[in-house]
Amino acid sequence: MSKTARALSALVGAALLAVAPSLANAQPFNGPMGVAGRWAIDLQRSKFNAALTGPPPLSGELDVTVDDGKSLAWTLVEVDEAGVAALQFAHAVLDGPTTQAVVNLNLVTISVERVGQAAVTVTTHGERDTRHQSMKVTRTDPDTLLVEQDIDGKPGPPDQTLILTRVK
Q1: pTM of the entire structure?
Q2: Longest dimension (CA), the chain
Q3: Which of 47, 104, 123, 133 is paired with 156 by a 20 to 30 Å CA distance?
């Protein structure tokens, strides 16, 4: 898949920055997710799907600048052999209306929904009948993010699983 698709998956990685109400718990989650700071993709522990997104990056860094329980803001940069492979900027209200994110200098419509105390799902909304891509981002411990990406829109296990570790 194109660099845009890879960036969208990164965007979903950015989705990891939000939190949503659990179906099992009637109490909505409304505090920060605890993800502010810099995160690096752990290439050894991540599972990439080159058939859908192309070859894995050489490196990737996510910088979460807003995590206040109301919204998330992030910048994602992935680097490959040719240089910058993916570039993404977003600032989204949690459980709010869709908003625009910048992915490789293109505007993309996204939404971010809380799905647990330390988890969000970031969804890209395509034009008209195109499929929606999604990424569930979960803070599994204070220094680890799990990003489960659905790229092909088909039910089943995630198409890619990325692990990000806290840099600072």
Answers
A1: 0.79
A2: 48
A3: 104
DSSP states of the chain = --HHHHHHHHHHHHHTT--B--TT-SSPP-S--S--EEEEE-TTT-B--HHHH-SPPSEEEEEEEEESSSEEEEEEEEEETTEEEEEEEEEEEBTS--EEEEETTEEEEEEEEEEETTEEEEEEE-STTSPPEEEEEEEEETTEEEEEEE-S--SSS-SEEEEEEE--
Residues in the chain: 168
Contact predicate 140/156, CB 8 Å: no
Q: Which two tokens stand for residue 137?
A: 């981002």
Cα 31–33–38 angle (5° rounding)?
140
Residue position matching structure tokens 């647990």: 116
Give the residue extent of every domain in the chain. 3-166
In this structure, whether the domain defined by 3-166 belongs to CATH 3.30.470.30 is answered with: no
